[in-house]
Amino acid sequence: MRPRTSLMLGLVLGSSLIGLPAAWADGGGRCAGKSHQMSFHQDGHRHGGFTSHLLKHLLKNKQELGLTDDQVAKMRTIALDADKARIRAEADVMVSERELRSMMWDDKAQLPAIEAKIKEGEAYQATVRIIGVRAARELIGTLTPEQQAKQKTLWEQSRHHRHQGAGADQYPGRTSGIESGTGPSAAGESEPVDGPSAG
Q1: What is the value of pTM for the model shown?
Q2: Among residues 52, 43, 54, 44, which one has the least CA distance to residue 192?
Q3: 184: Cβ–Cβ under 8 A, 6 or more apart, which residues?
Q4: How far apart are CA 23 and CA 114, in angstroms?
Q5: Residue 21: what pLDDT?
Q6: 3-state helix vs strand vs coil in the chain, percent to 5
Q7: pLDDT value of residue 197
Q8: What CA–CA distances, in Å, run from 142 to 43, 69, 78, 87, 147?
Q9: What sign does the CA torsion over 17, 19, 25, 31 have?
């Protein structure tokens, strides 16, 4: 592969790494750590962070919802299992991106192999999202139909209060619930108007 072709390929494929911990692949360092932290802080809010916020929302309204001790214990187990699965899945994403970056600067690497590695990384990212969605469904599934109806009302009230607080912010998408860690919101993902559904 000629130097010019290699450079062009690097520039094109480099765009696919935006928002991912690419700098981490260079062997560590302050810049790498910062890139990794920013990427997974954002990704965590979108996926695993939503499960955490939803759990906090449910536990915060334990009395209003009439949650039993068994329900609370089951919710905590679901959230813990989801966190562990998400951490493993995110590790797969990081390893895949590390391998991709290495291939990008290898003149001997064939384009089909690089394309396959990109698709592999996308599949791992999809797994992270699926874990979060499944956990949210399971959390809501622990509620009775009556509790689910009440939860939707509380969720809508919480959304209303958060949106009011965000109105004074210069960034409308940033809510006080996310920043304080008390709101059941998933940053970067649109929230259903009536809250998560178990169905």
Answers
A1: 0.60
A2: 54
A3: 50, 53, 54, 56, 57, 58, 155, 158, 177
A4: 18
A5: 42
A6: 75, 0, 25
A7: 61
A8: 26, 12, 10, 23, 9
A9: positive
For residue 14, the one-letter residue type is G
Where residue 149 falls (left for φ over 0; alpha for ψ -120 to 50; beta otherwise) is: alpha
The letter for the amino acid at 8 is M
Residue 43 is encoded by which pair of tokens? Answer: 């990704």
**pLDDT tens, per residue, the chain with 199 residues:** 555 445 445 544 554 444 444 443 444 434 444 444 445 445 544 555 778 889 999 999 999 999 999 999 999 999 999 999 999 999 999 999 999 999 999 999 999 999 999 999 999 999 999 999 999 999 999 999 999 999 999 888 877 777 666 554 444 444 333 333 334 433 334 444 455 666 5
Which residue in this structure is represented by tokens 């895949």? 96
The secondary structure of 86-123, three-state, reads HHHHHHHHHHHHHHHHHHHCCCCCCHHHHHHHHHHHHH
Produce one character per residue of 157-189: b if its CB has 16 or more CB atoms within 10 Å, e if not: ebbeebeebbeeeeeeeebbbbeeeebbbbbee
- Residues whose CB falls within 8 Å of the CB of residue 179, separated by 6 or more in sequence, listed in order: none
The single residue listed with the structure tokens 């062997």 is: 27
Nearest to residue 127, comparing CAs of 86, 82, 81? 86
